[in-house]
Write a structure and sequence with these properties.
heterodimer, A: alpha+beta, three-stranded antiparallel β-sheet, 5 helices, B: mainly alpha, elongated
Chain lengths: ~110, ~220
């Protein structure tokens, strides 16, 4: 899937990627790649401005953490972020069902 | 990471594309950590160090468009903080205005004292303009128009400045003579301080917007 096609859905994907617990940029990208079975193979830098924007909007919070001698910025969902995720998940499911109904099953 | 390696060169290019400040330091540290982790994994997979760095950088994507996207986010942040500062200042000034009306016999509501009518109207007009500008600034910020949003915030603090000058004139004209002098002085000083703090905060927000958009001639 091309980065352009993912643009409108990146916020939802990033919020979903950190819903299980705090995670850093590298792990978030790995998670997107592995959970999509390699379909979402974005240029890795793409996610950072989006993470910063979600943080500015109050949907994510972040802090530095050190592990194994490496400092990493960990992102976690805020309560507002959790609500936004639930809302966006519901919107996405409605949208996907609508598209599926029009496009039809794989022949 | 070697100083002449691909990661150092990438971070240098990114640094040049971002406005200076705390956020730039954080971005560079975060991106640097990511690239080092990527290079380390490539080394573990058997690549020589230089090639490992090159692969990690290639996977990250080009620095110039990334710097543009970050700079645009910084500009939006600047506009948001300017509008937020103006809104907080207006709330503070309104509370101080109400406090003044409680301690002085000259309740500062329009129509109550003809001798201070001009100052009172100037103050309320200032509040009205500031409130509208803050609302407009918030809406423009939502539409990701940071320059216009910060301009609206500047109008808001200007209007608050005018109202603060009007309020200080009233105090100097002894319109609050029935109130203890130190209370009036304290309230007027606080009001001036809040207005000045708002001007400084909006100016800093404006500087971030200018720096962000200057580094980002077109929005990514």
């Amino acid at each position: 899937v091309k980065g352009e096609a993912l643009k409108g859905h990146l916020d939802l994907l990033l919020l979903a990627a950190v819903q299980e617990g705090p995670s850093h940029g590298y792990a978030i990208i790995e998670s997107l790649r592995s959970r999509s079975n390699g379909a979402f193979d974005l240029p890795e830098g793409t996610v950072y401005p989006a993470l910063h924007r979600l943080e500015s909007a109050g949907l994510l919070a972040s802090r530095w953490a050190e592990r194994g001698g490496r400092k990493r910025r960990l992102y976690r969902l805020t309560p507002r972020g959790r609500s936004a995720l639930q809302r966006q998940q519901a919107d996405w499911r409605r949208f996907a069902q609508g598209v599926q109904a029009v496009v039809g099953p794989e022949s | 990471v070697s100083n002449d390696g691909a990661i150092a060169a990438y971070l240098d290019e990114l640094r040049r594309g971002l406005p200076a400040g705390l956020r730039r330091r954080r971005i560079l540290a975060e991106v640097g950590s990511h690239l080092e982790e990527g290079a380390e994994r490539e080394r573990s997979a058997g690549l020589p160090p230089r090639e490992a760095e090159r692969v990690a950088v290639a996977r990250f994507g080009p620095a110039e468009p990334l710097a543009r996207r970050f700079a645009a986010e910084l500009a939006d942040d600047g506009a948001r903080s300017a509008t937020g500062a103006a809104a907080m200042a207006l709330a503070g000034i309104l509370l101080l205005w109400i406090a003044m009306s409680q301690v002085g016999a000259a309740a500062p509501w329009p129509g109550e004292r003809s001798s201070i009518a001009a100052e009172v109207w100037a103050t309320w007009l200032g509040f009205g303009v500031a409130l509208m500008a803050i609302g407009l600034g918030a809406a423009l910020g939502r539409f990701r128009l940071p320059r216009s949003a910060v301009a609206a915030a500047a109008v808001a603090v200007l209007a608050m400045g005018v109202s603060t000058v009007a309020c200080a004139r009233m105090a100097l004209a002894s319109e609050y003579a029935s109130a203890p002098m130190h209370t009036v002085v304290t309230l007027v000083t606080l009001r001036v301080a809040v207005t000045v703090a708002a001007i400084v905060a909006v100016a800093r927000g404006a500087r971030r917007v200018v720096a962000g958009l200057g580094a980002s001639p077109r929005r990514a």
